[in-house]
Design goal:
Structural class: alpha+beta
Number of strands: 5
Strand order of the largest sheet: 1-2-3-4-5
Radius of gyration: 16 Å
Distance between the termini: 35 Å
């Protein structure tokens, strides 16, 4: 799969039309993914990041504490590529064993085992590329796990 990242121009905001143009046939999977986000209490916020020179979607889980304080945590990052979209979850290293025990497919378990910690940060990335809805179930298990880590 050739990897050409879409949404690199700061002046072109990620509208549904622009995203559909980049995704092509994968747009149906993207729309389905967005619908499932609502069921999991996730809001997708788009922003242009100058360090990476691209638009990224930040999957935010927002909640209100017992005292009424609004809180949020980043569940994942989303980027648009030519023909697919990419989800990246950053899992705390201290939770690696716990994540490995979740009800996930063998391929995802291998990703968890092979993922390397990022520098001094105490997280490891799990990267998923989607052009169809095939492994959404595993990703939503991980998203639910990630949003529970507050």
């Amino acid at each position: 799969m050739q990897e050409n990242q879409w949404l690199r121009d700061e002046s072109i905001e990620p509208s549904s039309e622009v995203i559909a143009q980049g995704l092509g046939l994968a747009n149906n999977a993207y729309v389905c993914f967005l619908e499932k986000l609502t069921d999991h209490g996730i809001v997708l916020n788009w922003r242009y990041y100058h360090d990476g020179k691209s638009w990224l979607g930040k999957g935010l889980y927002q909640w209100t504490t017992i005292r009424g304080t609004q809180k949020e945590t980043t569940a994942f990052w989303l980027s648009i590529w030519e023909g697919f979209f990419r989800i990246v979850l950053y899992i705390p290293e201290k939770c690696r064993a716990e994540v490995a025990n979740l009800p996930l497919g063998d391929e995802v378990r291998e990703k968890i085992a092979d993922a390397k910690q990022i520098g001094k940060l105490k997280f490891f990335p799990l990267i998923f590329d989607f052009c169809s809805e095939d492994s959404f179930d595993d990703v939503f298990v991980l998203i639910d796990f990630r949003k529970a880590i507050k």
